[in-house]
Amino acid sequence: MPLWQPQPAPGRYGALLLVLIAGYLLSAFITQHWVEALQVVIFTVAMVLALRSSSVSRRAVRVLLFVAVIGVPVMSALSVSTATGDTGSGIASLWTGLVLLVAVVLIVHRVLAFGTVTLQSIFGAISAYLIVGLMFASFFAAMDRFGGGGFFVPGEHANTQTFQYFSFTTLTTLGYGDFTAAQNSGRAVAVLEALTGQVFLATLVARLVAAFRTPGDRQH
User: Fold this and answer.
1) 3-state secondary structure labels for all residues of the chain
2) What's the mean per-residue pLDDT of the chain?
3) Where residue 185 falls among pLDDT bands split at 50, 70, 90?
C-alpha cells in the first residue's frame, strides 16, 4: 500500500457562484409573482452544480437528481398557483430551503475534504455562505405562509425581496432594524441564522483564506 495517495481534485464552484449571484439579482430587481417559480428552478440548478462537484456515491447522486427532476415542476406550479394559496407557496418555500440545505452540506463537506486550499475552495465557501442566506430566506417565507399571522410586525410587507433582505442583514449581523420578526419562532430562527453566519465566517472562510496558496507558492 503506497504511503502517499493523491487527493481528489477540488470541485468547480465558479459556475455555481455565478448562478447564485444571478438568481439573487433577478429576485431583487423583479417583483412579479412568477419570480418565486424562477427561484425554485435556479436554486435547484445550484444544488445540481453542488452535487456535480461533490464526492457522494453515484446512488445518492441518482436519488437527488430524481428528486430534483420531479420536484422542480411541482414546486414551481405550487409557488404561482392561486388555487393552493399560501399553503402551496409555503410548501414550495420549504422545499427550496431544504434543497439549499442539501447544497450547503455538499459544498462544505467537499471543501473540507480537500487538503490543499485553491481558488475553487474559496469560491465554494463563498457560494455556501450565499446559499445559507438564501436558505434562511426560504424558511422565513415558509413560516410566513404557514403561520397565518404574518412573519414581520404589522405594517412591514413580506415578499421574496424583503425576506432575502432580512435574511442577509441577519446573517451578516448588520441589524438595520427596518424589518423585525413579530413572533418568537421567527426571532429564534433569526438568532440561529446570525450565529451560523458568524461561525461560518470565523471558521470556514477565515481558515480557507489563511491557508490559500497560489500555484506558484505550492510549487515552492
Assistant:
1) CCCCCCCCCCCCCHHHHHHHHHHHHHHHHCCCCCHHHHHHHHHHHHHHHHHHCCCCCHHHHHHHHHHHHHHHHHHHHHHHCCCCHHHHHHHHHHHHHHHHHHHHHHHHHHHHHCCCCCHHHHHHHHHHHHHHHHHHHHHHHHHHHHHCCCCECCCCCCCHHHHHHHHHHHHCCCCCCCCCECCHHHHHHHHHHHHHHHHHHHHHHHHHHHHCCCHHHHHC
2) 81
3) very high
36-54: average pLDDT: 81
Rounded Cα–Cα distance for residues 210 and 91 (Å): 40
Q: How confident is the model at residue 134 (pLDDT cuts 50, 70, 90)?
A: very high
Residues sharing a CB contact under 8 Å with residue 110, sequence separation 6 or more, in sequence order:
10, 11, 50, 53, 54, 55, 124
pTM of the complete model beyond 0.90: no
